[in-house]
Amino acid sequence: MGKITALILAAGKGTRMRSSMPKALHEVCGMTLLECVIEAVQGAEISGVVVIVGDKKDAVKDILKGISVEIIEQREQLGTAHAVMSARNFLSHAGGVVVVLNGDTALIKPQTLKRLIAANAETDADATLLTAYLDKPQGYGRILRDANGRIKGIIEENEAGADELKIKEINVGIYVFKVASLLKGLDEIVPHNKKGEFYLTDIVSILYGKGKKIKGLESSDTAEALGVNTQLELATVNQIRRSEIIRSLMDRGVTFIDPTSTFIENHVEIGEGTKVYPFTYICKNVVIGQRCHIGPFVFLTSGTKVGDDANVQNMLEEGGPFF
Q1: Tell me: the pLDDT tens digits for 258-267?
Q2: pTM of the model as a whole
Q3: Contact of 293 with 311, CB cutoff 8 Å
Q4: Which CATH architecture has domain 252-312?
Q5: Which of 253, 248, 251 shows the shortest CA–CA distance to 264?
Q6: pLDDT at 179
Q7: What pLDDT does 55 receive?
Q8: Residues in the chain where the model's pLDDT stays below 70
Q9: Domain extent listing, the chain
Q10: For residues 181 and 267, what is the distance between their CA atoms, to the nearest angstrom?
Q11: Is the N-terminal amide bond of 321 cis, ω within 30° of 0?
Q12: What's the fold here for domain 4-225?
């Protein structure tokens, strides 16, 4: 398959978040959006990881300390293609294929990235796009196909006409490119859109026009398509991830009296037979043993360790004292 590099775009300002914090540093269940994406990439066994930073780059770099990634700065935020261009020198020496993904796709799974890489290799495609079908595709670029069903381009929603807006197949924003094809296509991208930005999505129509092979892989889980651009979207992604965590713990024999009023962050270990009561918040990196009773109304901070058969609660026992 050759060398595989991941290029994570995390330079954007995220103005719609209405926050002084860089978008990539907002958290999903105790981990930043960027850390979630890096973890998925590493889980897909991609050893070479490059992060493009820009807005408030020092804050982003602080989060990356101790994580094995290459950091490249995008000095001006002129769009996604411009961000990739910032890594041109690195990619030209890396060769092979590159997985390009946004730093806000916190729900992407390692197995999906593996499937996308495998699909690209099996078809020997110049580019393979992750797509999804959404009943309400508002906010996403639409996949354009020719009369033979081949992908011929991507149209951003703010550039789309009435018929294009009816398309249900959307661009997730995760791609696998042959590095050589990507670099050649980047040379032809121009800022012809309304914002004057260089869109990476334009490379699809460029490669199509050159007769290059472009393939699509549909995501088996539409939640993976969710990016985060607003506080509402951040809350939605948090809720989905929390449900995933709780469901995984249930599969291992943990009882949740009311999952909807229980909050569990990433990287929490809970032993079989433990019962978690409502209004409990368990931070990341907490380890709880077997047959414990946790809650109600308990907050366990990161790094807490609870042994087997423990009873951790916050309540007034019969007889007081009461004030």
Answers
A1: 999 999 999 9
A2: 0.93
A3: yes
A4: 3 Solenoid (2.160)
A5: 248
A6: 97
A7: 86
A8: 1, 192-194, 315-323
A9: 4-225, 252-312
A10: 38
A11: yes
A12: Spore Coat Polysaccharide Biosynthesis Protein SpsA; Chain A (3.90.550)
Q: How far apart are CA 87 and CA 297, in angstroms?
A: 48
Tokens coding 92: 């030209």
* pLDDT at residue 318, rounded to an integer: 54
100 close to 175: Cβ distance less than 8 angstroms: yes
Tokens of 269: 């270990």
Are 142 and 167 in contact by the 8 Å Cβ rule? The answer is yes
